[in-house]
Design a protein that fits this description.
The chain is 43% helix and 16% strand. By secondary structure, it is of the alpha/beta class. It has one domain: HAD superfamily/HAD-like (Rossmann fold, 3-Layer(aba) Sandwich). Strands 4-3-2-1-5-6-7 form a 7-stranded mixed beta sheet, with helices on both faces. The longest helix is centred in the last third of the chain and has 31 residues. It is elongated and about 75 Å long.
Protein backbone atom coordinates (compact mmCIF):
# COMPACT_ATOMS: atom_id res chain seq x y z
CA UNK A 1 0.00 0.00 0.00
CA UNK A 2 1.71 3.18 -1.16
CA UNK A 3 -0.75 6.01 -0.38
CA UNK A 4 -2.77 7.04 2.62
CA UNK A 5 -6.24 5.47 2.58
CA UNK A 6 -7.86 7.35 5.47
CA UNK A 7 -8.02 11.11 6.02
CA UNK A 8 -5.39 12.87 8.13
CA UNK A 9 -6.40 12.75 11.78
CA UNK A 10 -6.70 15.91 13.90
CA UNK A 11 -7.88 15.53 17.48
CA UNK A 12 -9.11 19.12 17.84
CA UNK A 13 -12.58 20.61 17.43
CA UNK A 14 -13.25 24.35 17.47
CA UNK A 15 -16.27 26.51 18.16
CA UNK A 16 -15.88 30.08 16.91
CA UNK A 17 -18.35 32.63 18.25
CA UNK A 18 -19.32 36.11 17.27
CA UNK A 19 -19.79 38.12 20.47
CA UNK A 20 -22.36 40.93 20.24
CA UNK A 21 -25.92 39.53 20.20
CA UNK A 22 -24.42 36.03 20.21
CA UNK A 23 -22.94 35.63 23.69
CA UNK A 24 -24.03 38.98 25.15
CA UNK A 25 -26.18 42.00 24.25
CA UNK A 26 -24.85 44.42 21.62
CA UNK A 27 -22.03 46.31 23.37
CA UNK A 28 -22.20 49.33 21.03
CA UNK A 29 -25.86 49.92 21.84
CA UNK A 30 -25.40 49.35 25.56
CA UNK A 31 -22.36 51.65 25.70
CA UNK A 32 -24.34 54.39 24.00
CA UNK A 33 -27.05 53.95 26.61
CA UNK A 34 -24.50 53.92 29.44
CA UNK A 35 -23.17 57.26 28.18
CA UNK A 36 -26.66 58.73 28.56
CA UNK A 37 -27.86 58.72 24.95
CA UNK A 38 -31.02 57.32 23.44
CA UNK A 39 -29.71 54.66 21.06
CA UNK A 40 -32.21 55.20 18.25
CA UNK A 41 -31.81 58.99 18.34
CA UNK A 42 -28.03 58.64 18.50
CA UNK A 43 -27.98 56.40 15.44
CA UNK A 44 -30.32 58.69 13.48
CA UNK A 45 -28.43 61.90 14.29
CA UNK A 46 -24.81 60.75 14.35
CA UNK A 47 -24.32 57.31 12.79
CA UNK A 48 -26.69 57.36 9.80
CA UNK A 49 -25.40 60.69 8.38
CA UNK A 50 -21.89 59.23 8.22
CA UNK A 51 -23.17 56.13 6.47
CA UNK A 52 -24.96 58.32 3.90
CA UNK A 53 -21.70 60.20 3.41
CA UNK A 54 -19.86 57.02 2.39
CA UNK A 55 -18.47 55.79 5.70
CA UNK A 56 -18.16 52.06 6.29
CA UNK A 57 -20.30 50.84 9.16
CA UNK A 58 -17.60 49.76 11.61
CA UNK A 59 -15.44 52.95 11.48
CA UNK A 60 -18.66 54.99 11.69
CA UNK A 61 -19.79 53.14 14.81
CA UNK A 62 -16.49 53.62 16.61
CA UNK A 63 -16.05 57.25 15.50
CA UNK A 64 -19.50 58.29 16.68
CA UNK A 65 -19.05 56.43 19.96
CA UNK A 66 -15.72 58.16 20.64
CA UNK A 67 -17.19 61.56 19.71
CA UNK A 68 -20.22 60.91 21.88
CA UNK A 69 -18.06 59.99 24.86
CA UNK A 70 -15.95 63.16 24.50
CA UNK A 71 -19.10 65.30 24.42
CA UNK A 72 -20.20 64.00 27.82
CA UNK A 73 -19.41 66.03 30.94
CA UNK A 74 -19.13 62.93 33.14
CA UNK A 75 -15.40 62.16 33.27
CA UNK A 76 -16.06 58.78 34.88
CA UNK A 77 -17.67 57.64 31.64
CA UNK A 78 -14.96 58.67 29.24
CA UNK A 79 -13.89 55.79 26.99
CA UNK A 80 -10.69 55.00 28.85
CA UNK A 81 -8.93 51.67 29.08
CA UNK A 82 -10.03 51.34 32.72
CA UNK A 83 -13.66 52.22 31.90
CA UNK A 84 -13.86 49.56 29.18
CA UNK A 85 -12.20 47.05 31.50
CA UNK A 86 -14.82 47.70 34.21
CA UNK A 87 -17.55 47.57 31.61
CA UNK A 88 -16.39 44.14 30.40
CA UNK A 89 -16.08 42.82 33.94
CA UNK A 90 -19.68 43.85 34.71
CA UNK A 91 -21.19 42.81 31.38
CA UNK A 92 -24.18 40.51 31.71
CA UNK A 93 -23.84 37.54 29.38
CA UNK A 94 -26.76 35.59 27.96
CA UNK A 95 -28.25 32.92 30.18
CA UNK A 96 -26.02 29.87 30.59
CA UNK A 97 -22.97 31.20 28.71
CA UNK A 98 -20.56 30.95 31.66
CA UNK A 99 -21.41 27.28 32.24
CA UNK A 100 -21.50 26.28 28.57
CA UNK A 101 -17.78 25.68 28.03
CA UNK A 102 -17.26 22.89 30.54
CA UNK A 103 -20.53 21.21 29.58
CA UNK A 104 -19.50 21.00 25.94
CA UNK A 105 -16.00 19.81 26.81
CA UNK A 106 -17.56 17.02 28.86
CA UNK A 107 -19.71 15.97 25.88
CA UNK A 108 -16.58 15.65 23.72
CA UNK A 109 -14.43 13.89 26.28
CA UNK A 110 -17.17 11.37 27.04
CA UNK A 111 -16.56 10.10 23.50
CA UNK A 112 -12.77 10.31 23.66
CA UNK A 113 -10.77 11.83 26.56
CA UNK A 114 -7.95 12.69 24.18
CA UNK A 115 -10.04 15.03 22.05
CA UNK A 116 -9.62 18.77 22.60
CA UNK A 117 -12.43 21.33 22.23
CA UNK A 118 -11.20 24.89 21.72
CA UNK A 119 -13.17 28.15 21.73
CA UNK A 120 -12.54 31.33 19.74
CA UNK A 121 -14.05 34.81 19.38
CA UNK A 122 -14.24 36.47 15.95
CA UNK A 123 -16.00 39.80 16.41
CA UNK A 124 -16.38 43.17 14.69
CA UNK A 125 -16.91 44.65 18.16
CA UNK A 126 -14.64 45.63 21.04
CA UNK A 127 -11.84 43.14 21.69
CA UNK A 128 -10.93 45.16 24.80
CA UNK A 129 -14.34 44.50 26.32
CA UNK A 130 -14.38 40.78 25.50
CA UNK A 131 -10.92 40.37 27.03
CA UNK A 132 -12.22 41.80 30.31
CA UNK A 133 -15.26 39.55 30.64
CA UNK A 134 -15.53 36.68 33.09
CA UNK A 135 -15.27 34.17 30.22
CA UNK A 136 -12.19 35.60 28.47
CA UNK A 137 -9.95 32.80 29.81
CA UNK A 138 -12.07 30.22 27.98
CA UNK A 139 -10.92 31.35 24.54
CA UNK A 140 -7.83 30.21 22.68
CA UNK A 141 -7.87 33.53 20.80
CA UNK A 142 -10.02 36.67 20.83
CA UNK A 143 -10.05 38.59 17.54
CA UNK A 144 -11.90 41.90 17.32
CA UNK A 145 -11.51 45.64 16.83
CA UNK A 146 -8.79 47.31 18.91
CA UNK A 147 -8.62 50.91 20.09
CA UNK A 148 -5.57 53.14 20.40
CA UNK A 149 -5.28 54.79 23.81
CA UNK A 150 -3.45 58.03 24.57
CA UNK A 151 -1.03 58.57 27.45
CA UNK A 152 -3.94 59.52 29.70
CA UNK A 153 -5.60 56.17 28.98
CA UNK A 154 -8.45 57.63 26.90
CA UNK A 155 -9.37 56.01 23.58
CA UNK A 156 -8.20 58.15 20.68
CA UNK A 157 -9.09 56.22 17.56
CA UNK A 158 -9.65 52.79 16.09
CA UNK A 159 -6.33 50.95 15.71
CA UNK A 160 -7.41 47.68 14.17
CA UNK A 161 -10.68 46.71 12.51
CA UNK A 162 -12.30 43.37 11.85
CA UNK A 163 -14.79 43.97 9.05
CA UNK A 164 -17.49 41.49 8.09
CA UNK A 165 -15.42 39.98 5.23
CA UNK A 166 -12.31 40.04 7.49
CA UNK A 167 -13.96 37.50 9.77
CA UNK A 168 -13.30 34.83 7.14
CA UNK A 169 -9.56 35.55 7.41
CA UNK A 170 -9.67 34.70 11.11
CA UNK A 171 -11.31 31.37 10.39
CA UNK A 172 -8.25 30.67 8.25
CA UNK A 173 -6.05 31.84 11.14
CA UNK A 174 -7.87 29.37 13.37
CA UNK A 175 -7.38 26.49 10.95
CA UNK A 176 -3.67 27.24 10.61
CA UNK A 177 -3.00 27.77 14.32
CA UNK A 178 -2.23 31.50 14.08
CA UNK A 179 -3.29 33.30 17.26
CA UNK A 180 -2.23 36.90 16.57
CA UNK A 181 -2.91 39.08 13.55
CA UNK A 182 -0.25 40.83 11.50
CA UNK A 183 0.23 41.99 7.94
CA UNK A 184 2.97 39.37 7.56
CA UNK A 185 0.35 36.63 7.94
CA UNK A 186 -1.80 37.82 5.04
CA UNK A 187 0.35 36.17 2.39
CA UNK A 188 0.38 32.85 4.24
CA UNK A 189 -3.22 32.72 5.37
CA UNK A 190 -4.70 32.50 1.87
CA UNK A 191 -2.16 30.03 0.51
CA UNK A 192 -3.21 26.44 0.02
CA UNK A 193 -2.10 24.35 2.97
CA UNK A 194 -2.13 20.53 2.88
CA UNK A 195 -4.90 19.07 5.01
CA UNK A 196 -2.29 17.21 7.06
CA UNK A 197 -0.65 20.51 8.09
CA UNK A 198 -3.80 22.24 9.34
CA UNK A 199 -4.06 22.94 13.06
CA UNK A 200 -7.84 22.40 12.87
CA UNK A 201 -9.50 21.52 9.54
CA UNK A 202 -12.54 23.71 8.84
CA UNK A 203 -14.76 20.63 8.67
CA UNK A 204 -14.08 20.36 12.42
CA UNK A 205 -15.19 23.92 13.11
CA UNK A 206 -18.58 25.09 14.37
CA UNK A 207 -19.35 28.76 13.79
CA UNK A 208 -22.01 30.56 15.85
CA UNK A 209 -23.21 34.05 14.90
CA UNK A 210 -26.26 36.24 14.82
CA UNK A 211 -26.45 38.34 11.67
CA UNK A 212 -25.02 40.21 8.70
CA UNK A 213 -21.41 40.19 9.87
CA UNK A 214 -21.49 36.41 10.07
CA UNK A 215 -22.82 35.58 6.61
CA UNK A 216 -19.35 35.29 4.99
CA UNK A 217 -18.34 32.87 7.76
CA UNK A 218 -21.51 30.82 7.30
CA UNK A 219 -20.61 30.50 3.62
CA UNK A 220 -17.02 29.40 4.26
CA UNK A 221 -18.01 26.87 6.91
CA UNK A 222 -20.64 25.46 4.57
CA UNK A 223 -18.07 25.11 1.80
CA UNK A 224 -15.81 23.07 4.06
CA UNK A 225 -18.59 20.91 5.57
CA UNK A 226 -18.35 22.40 9.04
CA UNK A 227 -21.42 23.35 11.07
CA UNK A 228 -22.81 26.92 10.87
CA UNK A 229 -25.33 27.89 13.57
CA UNK A 230 -27.28 31.16 13.67
CA UNK A 231 -28.77 32.59 16.85
CA UNK A 232 -31.23 35.40 17.51
CA UNK A 233 -31.22 37.28 20.83
CA UNK A 234 -34.88 38.28 20.59
CA UNK A 235 -37.82 38.03 18.19
CA UNK A 236 -38.30 34.77 16.32
CA UNK A 237 -36.58 32.51 13.83
CA UNK A 238 -39.03 33.64 11.15
CA UNK A 239 -38.18 37.31 11.75
CA UNK A 240 -34.44 36.53 11.58
CA UNK A 241 -34.82 34.64 8.30
CA UNK A 242 -36.92 37.43 6.80
CA UNK A 243 -34.47 40.13 7.95
CA UNK A 244 -31.31 38.53 6.55
CA UNK A 245 -32.70 36.63 3.53
CA UNK A 246 -29.61 34.42 3.26
CA UNK A 247 -28.48 32.85 0.02
CA UNK A 248 -28.18 29.10 -0.44
CA UNK A 249 -24.43 29.17 0.32
CA UNK A 250 -25.03 31.09 3.56
CA UNK A 251 -27.68 28.79 4.98
CA UNK A 252 -27.17 27.53 8.50
CA UNK A 253 -27.69 24.07 9.95
CA UNK A 254 -29.71 25.48 12.86
CA UNK A 255 -31.40 28.77 13.76
CA UNK A 256 -32.20 29.02 17.47
CA UNK A 257 -32.60 31.52 20.29
CA UNK A 258 -29.40 32.73 22.00
CA UNK A 259 -30.17 30.86 25.22
CA UNK A 260 -27.34 28.70 26.59
CA UNK A 261 -29.19 27.39 29.64
CA UNK A 262 -29.61 23.67 30.32
CA UNK A 263 -31.79 21.82 27.80
CA UNK A 264 -32.31 24.90 25.63
CA UNK A 265 -32.51 24.28 21.90
CA UNK A 266 -29.15 25.97 21.44
CA UNK A 267 -27.38 23.82 24.00
CA UNK A 268 -28.96 20.70 22.54
CA UNK A 269 -27.77 21.83 19.10
CA UNK A 270 -24.22 22.61 20.24
CA UNK A 271 -24.04 19.34 22.17
CA UNK A 272 -25.07 17.31 19.13
CA UNK A 273 -22.70 19.30 16.91
CA UNK A 274 -19.60 18.63 19.03
CA UNK A 275 -20.61 15.00 19.55
CA UNK A 276 -21.02 14.45 15.81
CA UNK A 277 -17.55 15.82 15.14
CA UNK A 278 -16.06 13.82 18.01
CA UNK A 279 -17.64 10.62 16.70
CA UNK A 280 -16.36 11.34 13.21
CA UNK A 281 -12.83 11.68 14.59
CA UNK A 282 -13.30 8.47 16.59
CA UNK A 283 -14.29 6.63 13.41
CA UNK A 284 -11.12 7.89 11.74
CA UNK A 285 -9.08 6.67 14.72
CA UNK A 286 -10.56 3.19 14.42
CA UNK A 287 -9.89 3.19 10.69
CA UNK A 288 -6.26 4.14 11.28
CA UNK A 289 -5.94 1.35 13.84
CA UNK A 290 -7.19 -1.23 11.35
CA UNK A 291 -4.67 -0.06 8.76
CA UNK A 292 -1.83 -0.15 11.27
CA UNK A 293 -2.80 -3.69 12.28
CA UNK A 294 -2.86 -4.68 8.60
CA UNK A 295 0.64 -3.28 8.09
CA UNK A 296 1.90 -5.19 11.11
CA UNK A 297 0.32 -8.40 9.82
CA UNK A 298 -2.01 -8.72 12.79
Amino acid sequence: MTGRTTQHLCNRIAIAFDFDDTLAPDTFASLIGDLGYDIEKFKAEKYEPLKKNGWDGIPARFFTLLEGARDQADNEKRLTRSYLKRYGEQLQLFSGVAEMFDKLRQRVQAIDPNLVLEFYIISSGFADIVKSTSIAHQFKAIWGCDLHFGEDGEAVCLKHTVTHPDKVRYLYYLSRGIESHSEDDLMFVYQDVPHSELYIPLDQVIYVGDGTSDLPCFRLINQHKGIPIAVFPDGSAREWARKYDVSASQRVMALVEADYSDNSLLMQTLGLAVESMAKKIRIQQLGDRVLEDAKDGV
